Amino acid sequence: MITFLTFKIILVALVFVITLLVAAYSTYAERKVAAFLQDRIGPNRAGPFGILQPLADGLKFIMKEEIIPVVSNKFLFILGPCIAMMTALMAGVLIPWGGTLTIGGETYALQIAELDNGILYVFAVVSIGVYGIMIGGWASNNKFSLLGAIRASAQMISYEIAMGLSIIALVAITGTLSLSEISAQQAGGTGGDWNFWNVVYHPLGCLIFIICAFAECNRTPFDLPECETELVGGYHTEYSSMKLGFYLFAEYINMFISSAVISTLYFGGYNFPFMNDLGLDQNMITIIGTVVMFAKVAFFIFFFMWIRWTIPRFRYDQLMNLGWKILIPLAVANVFITVASYLIFK
């Protein structure tokens, strides 16, 4: 019989491998989506349909010459990408990827760890991630890198306020900070009596959270920290080899985790309509729910890519105005509207 510790170790390994695979093949998917939107082919040389392109890119990063500028702070220069990669991987441990599995009479949840204040943990880890960018930009001793790092820190501070306020409205109604509990509250009942997903009750909060997620992940139209036309390459201008690869990988991992958090908080997570009317056993419902969860995550990853190749980059003043003058007031209004609506219609 499988033990609890063994199951958790297997789950950690699976989530780690899946996260790296998703991040690697998100680079391939991004180039294919860009090619489709721009009416061209995209990667098609490495393997059938270019399916081995991520492996070729990874091998290229490994074999590239590793350059550390003489005028840089060597320790911090190496530490920056390590922090970015580590914090990106840490955020996924609280995501409920599915329901419960029964193995040998024991019940196991498809979640690495469960905390009563799981949302706070995710916010804390995401906030630490900006230190990897800031340290890398400062340690490079390059003015373009430093400007990119300053932009990243100011951008994340600005948009985390609106993101936090959007979550306050959600927490006020759900009454919990636990990701698994929020996901479970969106589960369907039986006989057509099922709860709506939180996006139905909190459409404005969901929109604000998604916009802030783009800014937190440094994705277009909010990719000012690595703006090539102004800052050469931004905070990772001086980086090469796998240290540059860590920064790029961390961005795609953050995009994957952000998609999972959006799916969990607002789109039912692993729940799907009429899931309890299928007449299947719990294990099969859990497996189907996990597939549904990853389908939702895949949709939001595509959405991230679609926006990148559709909307042009904002100017920095437009970025700050959107964050402080539009999103934060809207998020505050959303808190009052949500709480007032709950008190009136409960």
TrEMBL record:
Q: Which organism is it from?
A: Pseudochryseolinea flava
Q: Which UniProt keywords apply?
A: Cell membrane, Membrane, NAD, Oxidoreductase, Quinone, Translocase, Transmembrane, Transmembrane helix, Ubiquinone
Q: Which domain of life does the UniProt lineage start with? A: Bacteria
Free-text function comment from the UniProt entry: NDH-1 shuttles electrons from NADH, via FMN and iron-sulfur (Fe-S) centers, to quinones in the respiratory chain. The immediate electron acceptor for the enzyme in this species is believed to be ubiquinone. Couples the redox reaction to proton translocation (for every two electrons transferred, four hydrogen ions are translocated across the cytoplasmic membrane), and thus conserves the redox energy in a proton gradient. This subunit may bind ubiquinone.
Can you name this protein?
Answer: NADH-quinone oxidoreductase subunit H
Q: Name one Pfam family in it.
A: NADHdh
Give the family from UniProt. Belongs to the complex I subunit 1 family.
Q: GO cellular component terms?
A: plasma membrane
| Subunit relationships | NDH-1 is composed of 14 different subunits. Subunits NuoA, H, J, K, L, M, N constitute the membrane sector of the complex.
Q: Where mainly located?
A: membrane
The portions of this protein that span the membrane are 75-98, 118-140, 161-179, 199-215, 244-267, 287-306, 326-345
HAMAP family linked to this entry: NDH1_NuoH
Annotated membrane topology is: Multi-pass membrane protein
Q: What EC number(s) has UniProt assigned to this enzyme? A: 7.1.1.-
What the entry lists under InterPro entries is as follows: NADH_UbQ_OxRdtase_su1/FPO, NADH_UbQ_OxRdtase_su1_CS
GO terms for MF: NADH dehydrogenase activity; oxidoreductase activity, acting on NAD(P)H, quinone or similar compound as acceptor; quinone binding
Q: For this chain's UniProt record, which GO biological process terms are given? A: aerobic respiration
Q: Which reaction does it catalyse?
A: a quinone + NADH + 5 H(+)(in) = a quinol + NAD(+) + 4 H(+)(out)
Protein encoded by which gene? nuoH
> Is Translocase tagged as a keyword?
yes
Where does it reside?
A: Cell membrane; Membrane
